[in-house]
Amino acid sequence: MPESIRTILKKTNNIERSAYIWNAVNAIMSALESPVLLMVIMRTTGLKDAGIFSIAFAVAALLLYLGQYGFRRYQSSDVNEKYSFAEYYGSRIITCVAMFVAALAYCIYGSVFRGYSATKFAVVFLICALKGIQAFSDVLHGRMQQMGRLDVATKSSCIRYILEMLSFALVLVIADNLLLACIICFIVSLTEFFLTSYNVASDFCTLKPSYNKEKMKQMLIEGFPLFVSLFLNMYISNAPKYAIDAYLTEELQALYNMVFMPAFVIQLVAHFIFNPIITTYAEVWNNGNVKRFRKLVLRQCTIILGLTILAVAVALTIGIPVLGIIFNADLTAYKTELCIVCIGGGFLAYSVFFNTIITIIRMHKTLLYSYGVAALAALLLSKSFVINNGIMGAVLLYAVIIAALAIVLALITFIKIEKELRRTK
Do 236 and 372 lie in a common domain? Predict the structure, then answer.
């Protein structure tokens, strides 16, 4: 059986075309997971459980970046193999252990200081554990992409997303129990990981980690700006959710997440467009073809702009009715908030894209300052924005800070590109 699974995952007539198609499907599955599960919860156990799930998913999405440590893009663009896979693998084991410790610490904090019930404690930890599987499989997928087989990685990831959604929804509908649904979903996801990602990875690398102290130290130091920038990027995006969790109700948390959902959809759709060509971007830059590199960056910026305009147009017309039907909730009072969220979602896509470009051109130390200032602003302002203006305050906080961050990252990128163009003339 393991051998047949590997054969199926690697089978393709056109690797490049398969990579694009499966990466697109994977992005769609990733974008659908949270809204689909939220929709099922809203139609079964109700608004309160939807609020618990929403904050659990937000915390897990944040801690996912601790587990990944920002190294997927670095690893995928490491065309000269500065570090061996064994070293990437060893560092990922360390960061995933740190992720689980952080998840447990957060749950204990929530229980002691925010009055989390035993059920909420368990749900938050299990969703974090679910994302822990994703964080660990990511290093294997990065190796596959590095070896030119992104299609194999995304097939494995797609299967995981589909099985997670199906198992969670099925158990919740039958048992009407959020905690049990999370437990079964985790078991299914872990089983899928061993049958697909871990199984097929043996054809691309030796699954033996290296823990050379000097190399580990060098990697963790070098990857720190990437980790911090991505971690803080997610914190900035979710800062309103944490404020709502602290100062408002779980019902308002659920409503905010319904309105906020399109922002992540825009980001994830933009991801699937540029994620397959990260290695190409790196090769173009490393070969000194700065003009072509600038052209690629500008083309991606245009695509994200088009997606954002489309999203705002949908928000102004059918957005609220569609979301209302999907989540079985009355959202008619939140049309303005939805439009602001879609604009913010566009800026979020830009910030993630420029983060990737800055990583490729190895300017990632500048990310520490950019994200640090933005995260500090979110931390200081979130309480007053949310308490005084509710959901409107939450979406305004998100949109303004993420827009300012995206503009700063764009300036860093284009200043570096123009300097290189002048230098090579």
Answer: yes
Six token digits for residue 313 = 């147009």
Tokens of 409: 């990252």
Is there a domain that residue 327 lies in?
Answer: yes
**Do residues 188 and 120 both lie within one domain?**
yes
Which among 189, 211, 233 is the end of a domain?
Answer: 211
286 C-beta neighbours (distance < 10 Å), count? 15
Residues 11 and 83 in one domain: yes
Number of domains in the chain: 2
Residue-wise pLDDT tens for the chain (425 aa)? 678 888 888 888 888 888 888 887 887 888 788 889 988 998 898 888 998 998 999 899 889 989 988 777 777 766 677 788 888 889 899 999 999 999 999 999 999 988 899 999 999 999 999 999 999 999 998 888 888 888 888 999 999 999 999 999 999 999 999 999 999 999 999 999 999 989 898 888 788 888 888 888 888 888 787 788 778 878 887 888 888 888 888 888 888 888 887 776 666 666 666 566 677 788 888 887 888 888 888 888 898 888 889 888 988 888 889 888 888 888 888 889 889 988 988 898 888 888 888 878 877 778 778 888 888 998 888 888 888 888 898 889 889 999 999 999 999 988 888 888 877 76
| This prediction's pTM | 0.80
Q: Which domain holds residue 206?
A: 1-211
Return the exposure string of 242-281: e unless at least 16 CB atoms fall within 10 Å of the residue's CB, then b.
bbbbeebebebbbbbbbbbbbbbbbbbbbbbbbbbbbbeb
- DSSP structural state of residue 148: T
